DNA sequence: GATATCCTCA
């Protein structure tokens, strides 16, 4: 039995299976070990096969498989499994609720939650936290009220969900009254709670309070620093973020990939191009952190804003992963700000390939053409939308374009001929047209 | 079975 466990820990299911088959007497424990081993290596077919061959009927075993389906985001199989279960407990129900929450189907999660024959604190936390994470703070607080009416006392995990909901809603007052009511001295020593608090204060506009909590915290860990650095970044306080990054290392906390997203975006928001370039290099060479797409997006944006468009484009071409719309979008936006038509065309071409239906890209490109006075190209970009039947997802965009055109025509140095005027007429509102006649 | 940080603004 312990030998089988060893193979399973090492991920060698083949060897474990051979020993398992050779066992003359198999007890419940060894069946469970085998089945959860298969679930861990995501071989759900094998785990179900064993479950069916198993002479025992135990909720725990079914729950292991159920959690496997939920983890794999295969809600249909999970529901099937759930319906077939000879007996269910609170954990089985909660896992289903959690499965729906994680796949973003809050309605289905709530239906399950309401149907539960009995609920415990974990089920409540799952549902409440689910609303919080999926941007439904109102539902979060309503359910929290219901919980209080039932006389259930919230614990740390639940409070974290509530704090997160309040930070999304921007309602510091509600959050603070909850904190006063439930956060006693014991909760203030919990780093999860503290980190959520720092994040909440920062997101709700009170960096002072965030800092106050941060400074009074002993034994700060990586996430604590990470949250504070990201907060500085969002406030445009680049130097403060960087100095905190150095403090962190003095405290022997090792940086990870997420920390660097904070540091790089702090450089970005603070306009610190030189520092950003240096940290990006250091991250890879000194700290051995592999950049993800988010790091690249940050750098492209940083270079783009600073007007180093060529450098931004070069960086994209060196990316080890396929650049997504986020990265190309950052470049296109930067080209718009710095009036670089050539690179804008490159970025736009890539965006058209990846998301041909997004009208925003065509509009941005035609705006760039417009500000360069290239009316024929403007017209072409617009007809691309017509011919490709691109959905217009923002009606106001054409009006913005109209304003760009209007400004251009009004400028004294716009040498437009009749042909140009013809191209732009479409963009103008009736009022604007009248002013040219 | 539930628990905190993470690119961008047109």
From TrEMBL:
- Organism this protein belongs to: Heracleum sosnowskyi
| Record family assignment | Belongs to the PPR family. PCMP-H subfamily.
Q: Which InterPro entries match?
A: E_motif, PPR_At4g14850-like_plant, PPR_rpt, TPR-like_helical_dom_sf
Which keywords accompany this UniProt record? Answer: Repeat
Note the NCBIfam families from the entry: PPR
List this protein's GO terms for biological process. Answer: RNA modification
**Name used for this protein in its record:** AUX/IAA transcriptional regulator family protein
Sections of the chain in a coiled coil: none
Check the record and name the Pfam families matching this protein. E_motif, PPR, PPR_2
Its Gene Ontology molecular function terms? RNA binding
From the UniProt record, list the PPR repeat ranges.
58-88, 89-119, 120-154, 221-255
Q: What is the lineage of its organism?
A: Eukaryota, Viridiplantae, Streptophyta, Embryophyta, Tracheophyta
